[in-house]
Amino acid sequence: MTTNDSINKVVDILIETKNITALTGAGVSAESGIATFRDPEGLWAKFNPQELASIDGFMSNPEMVWSWYQYRVNIVNNSRPNPGHLALVEFQNLNKVFNLITQNVDGLHQRAGSDNVVELHGSIIRNKCFNCNEIHQETIIIENKLNNCKYCNGLIRPDVVWFGEMLPEKEIELAQELATNTDVFMSIGTSAEVYPAADLPIIAKRNGAVLIEINPYITQLSNYVDIRIDLPSGEALPMIIDEYKKRTLK
Ligand code: BV8
Ligand code: ZN
Questions:
Q1: Would you give the end-to-end CA distance of the chain in angstroms?
Q2: pTM score of the predicted model
Q3: Which of 123, 209, 216, 233 has its CA 20 to 30 A from that of 79?
């Protein structure tokens, strides 16, 4: 099946369906200039995730971890949503039930205009106290200097989910419920390697959903999906929306 055939098949399904759920990963932000994690030139190629995206890493070297996150926050603040993010906003206007779950921590879906984004791994542009968990958005975070909590003087950290940390209960439970009750599940720009997020497409398929993957490279999910579109999401998603509109707005 050619890529165009796959796009047409996805649009056939979207026209017929009532309930669509999308799970996005770092690949969706790649075309905004934000490095993914596991691509050859990704973050984990340069930095050790256990050293940087973990409680032990922060406890053993808070200055290094903090400045690594501020380096990433600067990249995020200087980037903007790409056509893939903008196309996902249009999915909200197809008068279907559409839910967006993301593993991304960059806030680009919200900046593009997506509503009710389910953030499984938190947000790099929000900070909290390592000790009492109080959110410290309002505190002026001095970039490369460690900051202390105004309530308990604990260290301020990024409000993201590190390896070994539980995901926010409300978000992961909602995501599992959405995956269980959806007609179509789209896995977009994710290597499907990080759990429990990587369970979601499996849960959806087991509960009868059509499973679609949008990813220019093969992943460990690829053999399991019903339709694969091997294009960057910034190209594939606008093509899907354009074809959908062409077919439905007569
Ligand atoms: C937890 C936030 C309880 C911080 C991140 C089984 C069950 C439960 C847990 C585990 C389990 N097995 C192992 C575990 C532990 C661990 C885990 O999953 N490890 C993996 C590596 C095996 N999980 C956890 O620790 C989770 N906590 O479950 O707590 C527990 C704990 C321990 C043991 C049992 C239970 C916490 C996981 C969250 C970690 N936090 N980040 C930060 O960002 O700094 S992980 C990080 O990976 C990001 O959040 C990212 O979103 C996530 C997933 O990566 P992807 O988004 O998929 O990105 P990746 O680079 O991998 O892939 C990009 C893809 O895009 C590629 O496929 C590429 O081909 C594609 N692409 C590239 N360009 C494009 C594109 N696609 C489309 N268009 C393009 N243009
Ligand atoms: Zn505190």
A1: 27
A2: 0.95
A3: 216
In tens, the pLDDT along 99-115 reads 999 999 999 999 999 99
Amino acid at 179: A
More confident call, 206 vs 68: 206
Q: What angle do CA 151, 134, 137 make, to 5 degrees?
A: 100
Report d(CA 31, CA 155) in Å as an integer: 33
Beta carbons of 9 and 227 less than 8 angstroms apart: yes
**Residue 121 annotated as catalytic:** yes
Cα–Cα distances in Å, from 35 out to 40, 60, 65, 75, 183?
Answer: 10, 25, 17, 9, 31
The pLDDT tens digits of the residues spanning 176-218 come to 999 999 999 999 999 999 999 999 999 999 999 999 999 999 9
Atom of ligand 1 nearest to the CA of 49: 44
Pocket residues: Cβ below 6 A from ligand 1: 25-27, 30-31, 36-39, 42, 53, 103-105, 121, 160-167, 189-191, 193-196, 215-217, 219, 232-234
Task: Exactly one of 85, 109, 121, 136 is catalytic; name it.
Answer: 121
